[in-house]
Design brief:
Layout (H helix, E strand, L loop, with lengths): L1 H32 L43 H5 L1 E2 L2 E2 L9 H14 L1 H4 L23 H4 L3 H10 L13 H19 L7 H11 L4 H17 L1
Antiparallel strand pairs: 1-2
Helix pairs in contact: 3-7, 6-7
């Protein structure tokens, strides 16, 4: 009786490790079943790979007619074309602030000065090295041109100038156009165009005996005395 009990215990001791091993193997097999290669070997087509599924033999398909990429639904014709009813507009699609002019000057200095120089006279550094001379912004034709004209030229190019549509955002193109107006005004402004407060300072500087004139009057004798 005692020997049978001992044999039974000994058998249980052998069965338990074996059962554990079988259970572990089962868990491993179950885990491996989830590591299939379907995600690595997908039934898919690589770019430009041909196929017999479609009648034209191409695996890539054309977008549905009228499809618009996210963020490219450009319903504001003035903002994105510079035109109204197909004609270059002379108004801006948004109010131009001082910050817009500062941004316009920054973008103008980056993209436009190589040809048009910092004053808009068309004598930029690459023009001095043989590139075709662009017209000055200060000629009557361009002074009278609507702002939409400058936007359109930046967007589509003109003559030897290539398009900046992919380089400068539409809003910045309008800001550059606004800064071009600033350059044009700088050559043809009058005292009446100066704000009242600044106009008084300017008038004092221009008046004989004013602060600037007095400084010049005192500096002239000193310079003359030193030259003797």
């Amino acid at each position: 009786m005692k020997s049978e009990t001992l044999n039974r215990k000994e058998g249980n001791r052998r069965i338990v490790p074996a059962a554990r091993g079988i259970a572990c193997l089962g868990l491993i097999a179950f885990a491996l079943a989830g590591c299939r290669l379907d995600m690595h070997l997908q039934p898919k087509y690589l770019p430009y790979e041909p196929t017999d599924f479609f009648h034209d033999g191409r695996s890539e398909r054309q977008p549905v007619p009228g499809t618009v990429a996210r963020g490219h639904l450009r319903l504001d014709a003035l903002l994105y074309t510079g035109k109204e009813n197909g004609v270059a507009s002379n108004r801006f699609p948004f109010p131009i602030t001082r910050a817009d002019l500062e941004r316009g000057r920054e973008q103008y200095n980056i993209f436009c000065t190589p040809c048009h120089d910092y004053t808009g006279s068309g004598n930029g550094i690459i023009v001095q090295r043989g590139f075709p001379h662009p017209p000055s912004y200060h000629i009557d034709r361009l002074r009278d041109a609507p702002v939409g004209h400058f936007f359109d030229v930046m967007t589509n190019g003109f003559g030897a100038m290539y398009s900046y549509g992919s380089r400068v955002d539409p809003e910045d193109r309008w800001r550059i156009a606004a800064y071009i107006r600033v350059l044009q005004l700088s050559r043809h402004a009058t005292v009446q165009d100066v704000p009242e407060q600044e106009r008084q300072k300017l008038t004092q500087q221009m008046t004989p005996g004013g602060p600037q004139a007095s400084a010049l009057d005192t500096a002239a004798p000193r310079a003359a005395g030193q030259s003797q």
